[in-house]
């Protein structure tokens, strides 16, 4: 079991790093590396599909369940249709139109790194992720909304890293909203790589 887990971690990191610094690739090139992940994830629960390395919006649910992104985490759940409205009302998560399931199209995007300066008391990762997603939801950038958000929480300042196409005005709004989180003193943004 340990060698399989190690292999999956290495494979995921390799895909992430190669995509971070690489030139854009064609659909066919992308599918050569992504198809084995799709095949390995087939028939598995949502959490296992994500662990294998599927993008959050590529996780597939059974016909009687709905694909739902948890707002406060990098987590996708397959929930009963009867529970969806209740979970949305509680701001637990959101759903997505399932007519365009797979997100293979690649566009140029730039990463941003937000440095969240706090005192010794820090907000939780889930507070930060939820505030970011609730802010981005106002921009209606659904593809960005469904991407993983990386947070380095074990040192100060806390780092939030994400990819997207945001205007300078939207980036300023993200900073303002993150600064509203209890225990956050200031937020600074640094530009990352474009790919």
What does this structure look like?
It is a single chain. This protein is of the alpha+beta class and 195 residues long. The chain has 2 domains: 2-100, no CATH class; 110-194, ACT domain (Alpha-Beta Plaits), CATH 3.30.70.260. It is built from 7 helices and 7 strands; from the N terminus they run H-H-H-E-E-H-E-E-H-H-E-E-H-E. The strands form 2 sheets. A 4-stranded antiparallel beta sheet has the order 5-6-4-7, with helices on one face. Strands 2-1-3 form a 3-stranded antiparallel beta sheet. Helix 2 (27-41) crosses helix 3 and helix 5 packs antiparallel against helix 7 (168-178). The longest helix is centred in the N-terminal third of the chain and has 20 residues, at 2-21. The relative contact order is 0.15. The model is unreliable at 97-107 (pLDDT under 50).
Brief digest:
With 195 residues, the protein is an alpha+beta fold. 40% of the residues lie in helices and 23% in strands.
Ranges with pLDDT <50 over ≥5 residues? 97-107
**Fraction in helix:** 40-55%
Gross geometry: globular
Mean pLDDT: 77
Question: What structural class results from the helix and strand content?
Answer: alpha+beta
User: How far apart are the termini?
Assistant: 34 Å
Our Rg estimate from Cα atoms comes to 17 Å
| Spatial strand sequence of the major β-sheet | 5-6-4-7
Listing every helix as H and every strand as E from the N terminus to the C terminus, the arrangement reads HHHEEHEEHHEEHE
Tell me the number of structural domains.
Answer: 2
For the secondary structure, the number of strands is 7
- The percent range for strand residues is 15-25%
Contiguous helical run count: 7
- Largest beta-sheet characterization: 4 strands, antiparallel
């Amino acid at each position: 079991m340990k060698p399989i887990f190690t292999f999956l971690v290495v494979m995921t990191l390799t895909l992430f790093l190669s995509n971070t610094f690489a030139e854009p690739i064609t659909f066919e090139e992308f599918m050569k590396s992504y198809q084995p992940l799709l095949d390995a994830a087939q028939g598995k629960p949502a959490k296992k599909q994500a662990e294998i390395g599927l993008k959050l919006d590529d996780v597939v649910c059974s016909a009687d369940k709905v694909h739902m992104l948890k707002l406060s985490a990098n987590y996708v759940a397959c929930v009963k249709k009867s529970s969806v409205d209740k979970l949305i009302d509680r701001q637990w998560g959101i759903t997505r139109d399932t007519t365009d399931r797979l997100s293979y199209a690649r566009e140029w995007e730039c990463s941003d790194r937000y440095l969240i300066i706090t005192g010794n008391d820090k907000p939780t990762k889930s507070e930060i992720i939820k505030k970011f997603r609730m802010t981005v939801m106002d921009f209606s950038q659904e593809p960005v909304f469904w991407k993983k958000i990386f947070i380095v929480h074990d040192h100060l300042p806390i780092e939030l890293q994400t990819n997207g196409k945001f205007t300078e005005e939207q980036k300023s709004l993200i900073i303002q909203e993150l600064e509203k989180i209890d225990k956050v003193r200031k937020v600074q943004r640094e530009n990352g790589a474009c790919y």
